[in-house]
Amino acid sequence: MKCFSIFHSKESRERSSSPKAKVNNNPPPKKPKPATRLTEKENNLKKFSFLELRDATTNFNKLLKIGEGGFGTVYKARIRLSETQTDPLVVAIKKLNRQSMQGHKEWQAELQFLGVVDHPNLVKLLGYCSVDGERMQRLLVYEYMPNKSLEVHLFSTNLPPIPWKTRLQILLGAAEGLDYLHQGLETQVIFRDFKSSNVLLDEKFSPKLSDFGLAREGPQGDQTHVSTKPVGTYGYVAPEYTETGHVKSKCDVWSFGVVVFEVLTGRRAVDRSLPKAQQKLTEWVKDFPADSKNFGMIMDRRLNNQYSVDTARSIAKLGFSCLCKNPADRPTMSQVVEGLRDMIHKSET
Predict the structure, then answer these.
(1) Residue 342 catalytic?
(2) Average pLDDT, stretch 233-249?
(3) Region (Disordered) spans which residues (predicted)?
(4) Is 236 domain-assigned?
């Protein structure tokens, strides 16, 4: 794939997200919020007893299970966060696998990061439970997201398709969440596991990033990267991270590019049920450049052509720029956010 950037000089980037955009046609840019310290949390996280969470889930009843991963199970529950609260709050409770050391590490990572961050596009951690000893228990309590994940709505045939405008807003919100992690904190955070199943949707389909178990602090000082054992989900992991173990914020940008094409095509990052040439999404879409006559062939058929072709082409160009093999050629998430805002604004005028 020929890699090109839709972002030109630094000067032009500060004016707009695309070379043809004019400042006077765009909404005023949002002022950046002051950086948040990534230090010991000063928040209102509640420490629950194990008994409280066991009772809230009716002894972790299988009928209340709403999700399960390699390191734990998630249950829907109702619980009071304070004695003065009259009505119990609907929450999601994650119970970590006691036998998994990796699960304990992920619990610590989630508590470290979600206990500090505060952004409308990041899932909110409400409390936790920690029990040591032979019957060690590690649990986390989150706000409940009634519309499950972006993955469920993109790929489930039992649910109506996500409308085009909603898809754009989901992409923008998810990008703003990543940008906050990269730029909005005193210490950069690299998500390392950005994928459609980790983009949860609230009652208004506003997206919130979830599952910070693999997140870690980014390079500091003169460092250009952090060296770690490659982790993440196949199909979403940046190639240079897999090859070298060097992780930087541009790895998250690659993962975002993959999700961009999941949203456009309605196809999974990897789908073994398809012919071999189509199984890996990032390889398949290379045959349909954004400006080509055949571009429309990749678009999700469930949209029934109810979308702006020009905006779809622009979104695809942005997605391809995120998938540049050389990380230096990829945009930052700040540039991605700016570009998406501009595209959405143009599509509405």
Answers:
(1) no
(2) 94
(3) 1-37
(4) yes
Amino acid at 267: R
Place of tokens 């049920």: 273
* CATH code of the domain in which 337 resides: 1.10.510.10
| Average pLDDT, integer, range 285-310 | 97
Dump the DSSP string for 55-107: HHTTTT-GGGEEEEETTEEEEEEEE-SSTT-SSPEEEEEEEE-TT-HHHHHHH
Q: Count CB atoms within 10 A of the CB of residue 104.
A: 16
Residue 58 pLDDT > 90: yes
Whole-number Cα distances in Å, 152 to 94, 197, 235, 264? 19, 7, 17, 15
Contact predicate 32/337, CB 8 Å: no
Q: What is the DSSP string of 163-201?
A: PHHHHHHHHHHHHHHHHHHHHSBSS-EE-S---GGGEEE
Residue range 270-284, pLDDT digits in tens: 999 999 999 999 999
Q: Domain containing 101 — which CATH number? A: 3.30.200.20
**Secondary structure class of 287 (helix, strand, coil):** helix
Q: Cα separation of 344 and 349, whole Å?
A: 9
Q: How far is CA 50 from the centre of its chain?
A: 30
Residue scoring higher pLDDT (155 or 215): 155
Q: Give the number of residues written for the chain.
A: 349
Last residue of some domain: 100, 125, 143?
A: 143
pLDDT at 7: 63
Say which residues have a Cβ less than 8 Å from residue 163's Cβ, sequence separation at least 6. 306
CA distances from 38 to 32, 35, 118 (A): 17, 9, 11
Residues 6+ apart with CB under 8 A from 52: 79, 129
If asked whether residues 98 and 229 sit together in one domain, one would say no
Options 118, 132, 193, 287, the catalytic residue: 193
